[in-house]
Amino acid sequence: MQDVVGSRNTLSHALRTRHSVAVDQPLPEERREAGFSLIELLVVLAVVMIIGMLAVSQFLTAFDRSRQRSTMGDMRSISAANGSYATDLPDIAPYYLGMIPPVDRWGYGWQYEYGDGEYTLASTGSDGVDGPLPPAVWQNNPFECDLIVQNGAFFQAPTS
Q1: Which residues pair with 121 in a beta bridge?
Q2: Banded model confidence at residue 42, pLDDT cuts 50, 70, 90
Q3: Across all residues in the chain, what is the average pLDDT?
Q4: Residue 117: left if φ>0, alpha if ψ -120 to 50, beta else—which one?
Q5: What pLDDT sits at residue 40?
Q6: In the chain, what are the domain boundaries?
Q7: From residue 95, how far is each of 53, 70, 72, 100 by CA, in Å?
Q8: How far apart are CA 103 and CA 75, in angstroms?
Q9: What does the DSSP 8-state code read for residue 79?
Q10: Which CA distances in Å does 89 have to 54, 81, 82, 150?
């Protein structure tokens, strides 16, 4: 029995000694530098946010450009269907279009005028307001400018 108690005390003493040494010793070098500091995480987060802001602005520009090009395509289709120059936009009923889109790609109604054997089809652009007039404004905000087709040819549209 004495041997069991003695070995138990020896084991207990060894565990206490090992535990106190482990608590008092500093961590090994590789374990201390395994994580990232708060500053490093904040710098990475800031860089990711800046890249994200640039990507979102480019995406919105591409989205507006696609709306503008789709509106121009619709205007070409309407002009091709308007062979006899209808007096009103609903009078154009091409068999290959089915029906004319009631609004442009920004959701604004078409402006159609007919007079003296000529017609004008216009889209007000992204702002939905008549004007501004090019050429200088196409560079500043090219999506606010009106798109105009007269007698089947674009009278006012971006060149690129």
Answers
A1: 112, 149
A2: very high
A3: 78
A4: left
A5: 92
A6: 2-156
A7: 45, 20, 20, 10
A8: 11
A9: H
A10: 41, 11, 9, 14
Q: Is 119 in contact with 112 (CB distance < 8 Å)?
A: yes
Read off the tokens for 131: 């004007």
Q: Measured between alpha carbons, how far is residue 19 from residues 8, 31, 145 in Å?
A: 16, 19, 77
Q: Token pair of 59, please? A: 């995406």
pLDDT band per the 50, 70, 90 thresholds, residue 43: very high
- Tell me the C-alpha distance between 42 and 51, whole Å: 14
| 111, burial (CB in 10 Å: exposed 0-12, middle 13-18, buried 19+) | middle
Length of the chain in terms of residues written? 160
Does residue 50 have a pLDDT over 90? Answer: yes
What phi and psi values does residue 82 have, to the nearest 5 degrees? Answer: -90, 55
Q: How many CA atoms lie within 13 A of 147 on its CB side?
A: 29
Question: Cβ-count burial of 85 within 10 angstroms (0-12 exposed, 13-18 middle, 19+ buried)?
Answer: middle
